[in-house]
Design brief:
Length: 330
């Protein structure tokens, strides 16, 4: 029997979880939850690194919890909780900020991209975000971090910081590994296959899990295609069609070879129509379940409270060791 791994991963609270987040992260989480010890976090402390409206943030936290349940995460099999409900994340985030080096954080491409989008008033928190993310992961002796490709650099930093801390203060942290999907680790935007599908991009760039069927169909039918003809998987020469094929593969389970066989001689329009139908069929039950969970705020509260209690017990035990090894406190 394979060894049970300890998994940690999270998503920022949003009502705009997109199919990229789903394929890159959530889908793997659901597959891994039965055979591993899993903690899935709603990372609200990360969300405040860019300006937030408090009312909307509260709503988005619940919305994300509802999404977790709707895609199939089961609180009987995994721990679902909100990051700020476990104060040790912030404490270890501070500590990791003292272990990380300026030059390391300056190299983070996500910071550079997000700071550029933000233009002015870039917060210090946006810069130190990867130190907090390292803390999230290391706090639970995580062995595996299932993420999309864009988070690989941050997980690599967590590994570096864990090793550095262990060398300086004695063996304290496990050094975790990132796991990414073989296909779909980076779903690209529908209106520009050179950029990542993202919640902060244009509305047309992403299929959101909350999108109604007609919205999904319209977005797919309007998606950018490549020059030339033919449905074949070649991310370098045909980035747009390869991206749509990746989504098709994930919503139908068909291999790339089968998709090429079935659509090889057909036009882009026919393929997009089939993709739209398959995506609507796949996402409709998720959207309906999400709406149902959103109506049961009491149940959401109960799940998040119980998850926070479980996570807090583990985090508290770990932070005591970390403080002791560093010489902190009385
Ligand atoms: N396009 C993507 N393809 C595959 N995986 C993706 N992820 C994000 N975008 C894609 C993965 O989703 C998880 C949650 O990410 P997050 O909440 O930290 O958001 P993010 O990485 O900043 O990406 P978003 O959702 O598109 O937001 P913005 O617009 O703010 O950048 C992570 O595992 C991530 O890898």
């Amino acid at each position: 029997m394979a060894k049970r791994e300890t998994l940690f991963s999270g998503i920022q609270p949003t009502n705009q979880t997109h199919i990229g987040n789903y394929i890159g992260a959530l889908k793997q989480w659901v597959e891994l939850q039965s055979s591993n010890n899993c903690l899935f976090c709603i990372v609200d402390l990360h969300a405040i690194t860019v300006p937030q409206n408090p009312e909307k943030l509260r709503e988005d936290i619940r919305s994300t919890a509802a999404t977790y349940l709707a895609v199939g995460l089961d609180p009987k099999k995994c721990t679902i909780f909100v990051q700020s409900d476990v104060p040790e994340h912030a404490e270890l985030g501070w500590i990791m900020g003292t272990v990380a080096r300026m030059s390391e954080l300056e190299r983070m491409t996500q910071f550079k991209d997000k700071a550029k989008k933000q233009k002015e008033n870039v917060s210090v928190g946006l810069f130190t975000y990867p130190a907090l993310m390292s803390a999230d992961i290391l706090l639970y002796d995580t062995t595996i971090v299932p993420v999309g490709e864009d988070q690989m650099q941050h997980v690599e930093l967590a590994r570096t910081l864990a090793r550095r801390f262990n060398t300086q203060f004695g063996e304290t942290f496990n050094v975790p590994h990132a796991v990414i999907q073989k296909t779909g680790a980076r779903i690209m935007s529908l209106d520009d296959p050179k950029t990542k599908m993202s919640k902060s991009g244009t509305l047309a760039n992403a299929i959101f899990l909350s999108d109604a069927p007609d919205v999904i169909t319209r977005k797919i039918m309007r998606a950018v295609t490549d020059s030339g003809k033919g449905i074949s998987f070649d991310p370098t020469k045909k980035p747009a069609i390869s991206n749509l094929m990746t989504i098709f593969h994930h919503v139908t389970g068909d291999s790339m070879e089968k998709i090429e066989q079935d659509f090889g001689n057909k036009g882009y329009g026919d393929f997009k129509k089939a993709l739209a139908e398959a995506t609507v069929e796949y996402l409709t039950p998720i959207r309906k379940k999400r709406e149902m969970y959103m109506k049961d705020q009491k149940e959401l509260d109960r799940i998040l409270k119980s998850g926070a209690e479980t996570a807090h017990k583990k985090a508290l035990k770990k932070i005591v060791t970390i403080r002791k090894n560093m010489g902190l406190g009385r």
